[in-house]
Amino acid sequence: MARLLPLLDDPAPGVVRETATALLPSAGVLPDGPLMARLGVEWPRQVRVAAFRLLDARGGIVGLRAAVALLDDPDDKLRARAGQSVQRWHPAPGAEHGDPEVGELLDRARHLFSEYVLKRRKWEAGLSA
Questions:
Q1: Dist CA 22 CA 83 (whole Å)
Q2: N or C: which end of the chain has fewer CB within 10 A?
Q3: 90 pLDDT exceeds 90?
Q4: Which InterPro entries does the entry link to (predicted)?
Q5: At what angle are helices 13-23 and 45-58 packed, to 10 degrees?
Q6: Nearest in space to 66 (alpha carbons), one of 96, 30, 119
């Protein structure tokens, strides 16, 4: 796994795509910091997509954090995919309830929800609306 991570920065989109596919089964144990850093607009699109695939596969707050980070991405498809991820997000079973970061992230994505759905997501996460 450690040998594959540097391939996420390869200039060839096919190499980056195949590396992300190979790493998907291990997404839950990958360090999220370096992947989150690869979501920035200074990285090529294929790197941002691969990092998002891996972070989104983790789910929970890590997936939500990654999706919200991409809501302002200049790439329409990636931005739309991030929005869909936020809309289908639910707290992971056994996750800590009442995490204020979840509330902040959901508030940043407020435009994706009706008021009812936003309140419901916050309630599911153990937060007051």
A1: 25
A2: N
A3: yes
A4: ARM-type_fold (IPR016024)
A5: 10
A6: 30
